[in-house]
UniProtKB/TrEMBL annotation:
One of its GO terms (molecular function) is N-acylneuraminate-9-phosphate synthase activity. PROSITE patterns: AFP_LIKE. This is N-acetylneuraminate synthase. Gene3D superfamilies: Aldolase class I, Antifreeze-like/N-acetylneuraminic acid synthase C-terminal domain. It comes from Luteipulveratus mongoliensis.
Length: 348
């Protein structure tokens, strides 16, 4: 069963649904956020996504070790959560102009809420879907609150065990909402492609009885495009106008041309999946005419023997199969034929 977000059906029978995540790459500027929305529409993605929180709704202002990232963190080492989220958050008053512009550009616009007040804000903006971020997958009350709106729920699974994913999916379903997409995800920033474990996508689909997508934090588009072959129906990637100075997530985000390539190549990957069958397709019929077969390659007379000088395997098709030469070699022609005649059984 496909999931519908806005005017888009999402499932195996439809091209991958591409979500461009703004996150903190607006770099504290509403104008830049709006420019990202325009870029996403121009690149051909289907949706643009925000994150809806305030620093105080996601953490507290504390310098204690529990509230500070490891010094070894590749991007944000040593920063406090409060400091990071103060920089990265999207002010609530920006949501309406961002949603309005996205709609003008025929883009789906939705968000990841991080508490009940965020859901309230987004409901007021008629958000068509909700995403549960990886770190929030264990917040089952939040999952139920988002699912109870009746909107499609996208659940990201970075760091989560099978049991935790199952609990979140069941929490959403407990509200009567069956519009659920589960995202395979590696919650590293940036993520190593070798840790993506895309072969888990078919397994996840069977275990959770839901459509599976990919939330991808690896550089480039290779991992994302490969996921389509494993059954991903949705791809989410962070985006930026330019990685150089592009915002807190810019180092693992796609630039405009890369996003355009992702849209194009993921569609090609989906189209190439075809059907579980082997054999010639309709467009190969002309090619079948030009397979090799046995042809008379020199004028012959009745009674002449078939030899390698007057019969060879050449293109096109029409004559006996090349492997039949050993059966006809040395046998006599029943009549004379000109060079370029397909060798058939009635000629020998």
């Amino acid at each position: 069963m496909s999931v519908r977000i806005g005017k888009h059906d999402i499932g195996p029978d439809h091209e991958p649904f591409i979500i461009a995540e703004v996150s903190g790459n607006h770099d504290g500027s509403l104008d830049k956020a709006l420019d990202i929305v325009r870029m996403v529409a121009d690149a051909g993605a289907h949706a643009v996504k925000l994150q809806t929180y305030k620093p105080e709704t996601i953490t507290i202002d504390s310098d204690a070790p529990d509230f500070r990232l490891s010094e070894k963190h590749e991007l944000w080492g040593g920063r406090t959560l409060w400091d990071l989220y103060t920089e990265a958050h999207t002010p609530w008053e920006w949501h309406q102009p961002i949603f309005e512009l996205a709609r003008e550009l025929d883009l789906v616009c939705f968000s990841s809420p991080f508490d009940a007040t965020a859901i309230e804000l987004l409901e007021g903006l008629e958000a068509p879907a909700y995403k549960i971020a990886s770190s929030e997958i264990v917040d089952l009350p939040l999952v139920r609150a988002a699912a109870s709106t009746g909107k499609p729920i996208i659940i990201s699974t970075g760091m989560a065990s099978v049991g935790e994913i199952h609990a979140a999916v069941e929490a959403a379903r407990s509200t009567g909402n069956d519009q659920i997409i589960v995202l395979s995800c590696t919650a590293s920033y940036p993520a190593d492609p070798a840790e993506s474990n895309l072969r888990g996508i078919p397994l996840m689909r069977n275990v959770f009885d839901a459509e599976i997508g990919l939330s991808d934090h690896t550089p480039g588009i290779g991992t994302a495009v490969a996921s389509v072959a494993l059954g991903a129906v949705l791809i989410e990637k962070h985006v930026t106008l330019a990685r150089e100075g592009g915002g807190v997530d810019a180092s693992f985000s796609l630039e405009p041309e890369e996003l355009r390539s992702l849209v194009r190549e993921s569609r090609v990957a989906w189209q190439s999946l075809g059907q579980p069958r082997v054999g010639a397709v309709a467009t190969e019929q002309e090619g079948l005419r030009f397979r090799r077969s046995l042809y008379v390659v020199a004028d012959v007379q009745e009674g002449d023997a078939v030899t390698t000088d007057n019969v060879r395997s050449i293109r096109p098709a029409g004559g006996l199969a090349p492997d039949a030469f050993e059966m006809v070699n040395g046998r006599a022609f029943t009549r004379g034929v000109p060079r370029g005649t397909a060798l058939t059984w009635d000629l020998i």
